[in-house]
Amino acid sequence: MYVLGVETSCDETSVSVVKDGNIVLSNEVLSQIDIHQSYGGVVPEIASREHIKGITYVFDQAIKKANLSYEDIDLIAVTKGPGLIGSLLIGINAAKVISLNYHIPIIGVHHISGHIYANYIEHGMEFPLLALVVSGGHTELVLMKEHFSFEKLGETQDDAVGEAYDKVARILGLGYPGGPAVDKLANQGSDTFDFPRPMIHSDDYHFSFSGLKSHVINKHHNMLQRNEEINVKDFSASFQEAVTDVLVAKTIKAKENYQVKQVIVAGGVAANSGLRKKIKANITDIPVYFPIMDYCTDNAAMIASAGYFKYKKYGKSDDLYINGYSRLDLEREM
User: Fold this and answer.
1) Which CATH number applies to 127-286: 3.30.420.40, 3.40.50.720, 3.30.70.100, 3.40.1260.20?
2) What is the pLDDT of residues 86-122, one digit of tens each?
3) Predicted TM-score of the model (pTM)
4) Which stretches of the chain are assigned E, i.e. beta strand?
């Protein structure tokens, strides 16, 4: 079964062709990072315009590299949310045109389900499993008892972990995106500041990073006011140690309480080397999987994989009234 995946939820324009949920025949991604860097973050209006510029080219390249034609495609899977509404609608409407013109069924996919299924492409899935979702907009623990069944155990009560990384990077003068820059410096520094680990001992599976972010920013401000030298490498290392301690502790607690057979990490922050090392070092009794780097950030291959399993489970597609949603509940994905 050939699935054409379409992903335009934020600032990547991506189209992919995936066979049977895990054989990636093409995965084209046009990134806008260079365009948004000067603004210190993604500008929604600019993102939408860039999607319009690149969407036709990316569709053509994906089909060409897969060595197929549109007549060979069995299903179109497109991100319907959550995300920037203007960006989402570019991908959705482009997918509708292909669907209508070539009589291909279309199915809308939750963006986070795509990040979770990025792991299936390389590693497969064994249920029940626990997914730690960590990105610029999401931080949550999700239990899966079967394909396309999502039970959210806990989530951030304020800032997502990727958002906290970007804001800390900004005050350190590291630019955008901040996560990779902080991670790189953290590997060269030491945990000398002993930043707080919010909610690490709470009985639930929720997270909170707003207080940690504020603590780090205030510490930086106070040191500047006292003309103290700031070791950016140690600052980055201390922040990353605090964040990863919390993420790993909550994951271990959920893993043990729900007796899962597999732990997977999903989302852009899954590329973080500190998180990868720490979770692998602390969970050794069951497999722990991360997507390859190309599938950590937003891409259409993960959407095609998720769409394949959604279609297989429910046996039905959407109609051409499919819409985009800036907010969307993963647990109601059906």
Assistant:
1) 3.30.420.40
2) 999 999 999 999 999 999 999 999 999 999 999 999 9
3) 0.96
4) 2-7, 12-19, 23-31, 75-81, 106-110, 129-134, 139-144, 151-155, 262-266, 288-289
